[in-house]
Q: What sequence folds into this?
């Protein structure tokens, strides 16, 4: 058995041993998403959904290119199909040459390989990015899409301008979604230990009740320039992945009580794999170090 | 809704009876959107999957045409003094009711602070868009999809998002 499968099997065994109700026992009602922290390699199974998450990347500078090269390397052995962009896709000017230098060139091998990027807009992004062909937003500031396989729906929000219409739309979309996995992503973090930005409490007060009510399992965000996995909040696992090009070294504040795992010394992206009820994730740094990994068991609907 | 109630109270009218100032504000917005849509319709339609060249060309061309059509416009055309007073009062109420510290922190996050603003010119490329917390948006008069509110410093900007153009701005409306 390849080593990576062994690692995954080990992690699942550990999960069972910890008495987690998501394995073996009856399905919980509106239960929390569980996270098992372990040195988990990605199982790389046939038929699973493999995706990456990237945020705050569009600088056009060397660190962005180096992290992009790392993503391309990872893609050779772990062929993720999607990249979720959590915003700040282009910093500064947004002329045609900026789209090229800050996005198309560094990620060209991925684009050529057919990897689809799905954009959310950050506070540095012009609104017209929604029409850009390679961000697959269909001209919309907020939208949802079904994963190419596995019962998964992604909800992509515009967190810089959350008009009441958008919140109403989100409620209806979540309510109507029949998928097992509901994953939201957007730019501003409802939870973050960032010293520069930190948690957007008002956004949290608006979105979190909907996420809890409609069984969102995972939320990806950016804005703060580091990687952080938040301790599950009301059963939901929140990530900050704002480390795709920008970096705020040492910005994770140690006293927030929010951090399950943080990494603020280099750029990083996240790769994940979903099969059935499990999402296995690795956060990978520019040098290829796995800085965080684990398994998330999705929240389950009422029977 | 809060904004409309304030309007009614400030003018001594019953709720849902907008003042002449507010009616004028709405009428000017309506005229602006009509002009925007007319000029935009004359441009090649931007597909849902556009190239950067198409996006840039349309945005700059639309900006130029709107600016040319509104060459006689002046600051305060939309945000007249009575409207500014009402926005200021409405924001103060929201800040008081919903927690000034968190709301202001969101708005001022990466906000460039005081900046020279010129109407009918392009929103500065290097200036991030301010975050607009949901309670603040709910307290401001609703806009058509072509327009948005943003803060630069403590001033509220009316932004044409398709043209990336500053349409109008207020004096300082945040405390």
A:
């Amino acid at each position: 058995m390849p080593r990576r499968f062994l690692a995954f099997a080990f992690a699942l065994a550990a999960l069972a041993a910890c008495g987690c109700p998501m394995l073996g026992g009856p399905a919980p009602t509106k239960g929390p998403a569980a996270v098992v922290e372990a040195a988990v390699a990605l199982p790389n199974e046939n038929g699973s959904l493999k995706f990456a998450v990237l945020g705050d990347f569009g600088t056009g500078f060397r660190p962005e290119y180096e992290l992009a090269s790392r993503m391309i390397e990872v893609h050779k052995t772990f062929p993720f199909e999607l990249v979720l962009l959590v915003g700040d896709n282009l910093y500064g000017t947004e002329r045609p040459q900026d789209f090229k230098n800050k996005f198309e060139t560094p990620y060209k091998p991925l684009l050529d390989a057919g990897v689809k990027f799905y954009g959310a807009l950050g506070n540095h992004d012009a609104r017209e990015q929604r029409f850009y062909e390679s961000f697959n937003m269909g001209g919309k500031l907020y939208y949802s899409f079904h994963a190419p396989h596995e019962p998964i729906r992604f909800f992509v929000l515009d967190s810089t301008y959350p008009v009441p219409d958008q919140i109403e739309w989100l409620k209806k979309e979540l309510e109507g979604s029949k998928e097992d996995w509901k994953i939201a992503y957007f730019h501003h973090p409802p939870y973050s230990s960032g010293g520069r930005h930190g948690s957007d409490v008002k956004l949290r007060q608006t979105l979190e009740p909907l996420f809890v009510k409609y069984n969102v399992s995972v939320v990806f965000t950016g804005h703060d320039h580091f990687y952080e996995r938040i301790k599950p909040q009301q059963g939901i696992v929140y990530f900050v992945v704002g480390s795709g090009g920008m970096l705020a070294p040492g910005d994770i504040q140690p006293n927030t009580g929010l951090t399950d795992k943080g990494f603020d010394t280099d750029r990083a992206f996240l790769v994940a794999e979903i099969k059935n009820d499990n999402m296995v994730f690795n956060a990978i740094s520019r040098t290829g170090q796995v800085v965080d990994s684990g398994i998330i068991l999705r929240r389950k609907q009422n029977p | 809704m809060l904004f409309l109630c304030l309007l009614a109270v400030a003018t001594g009218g019953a709720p849902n009876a907008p003042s002449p100032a507010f009616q004028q504000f709405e009428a000017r917005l309506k005229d602006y959107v009509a002009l925007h849509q007319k000029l935009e319709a004359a441009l090649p339609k931007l597909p849902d999957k556009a190239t950067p060249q198409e996006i840039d060309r349309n945005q700059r061309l639309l900006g130029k045409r709107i600016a040319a059509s509104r060459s006689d416009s002046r600051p305060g055309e939309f945000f007249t003094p009575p409207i500014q007073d009402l926005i200021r009062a409405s924001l103060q109420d929201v800040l008081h009711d919903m927690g000034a510290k968190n709301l202001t922190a969101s708005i001022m996050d990466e906000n460039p602070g005081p900046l020279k603003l010129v109407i009918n010119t392009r929103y500065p490329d290097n200036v991030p868009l301010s975050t607009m917390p949901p309670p603040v948006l709910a307290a401001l008069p609703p806009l058509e999809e072509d327009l948005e509110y943003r803060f630069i410093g403590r001033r509220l900007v009316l932004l044409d998002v398709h043209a990336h153009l500053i349409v109008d701005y207020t004096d300082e409306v945040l405390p």
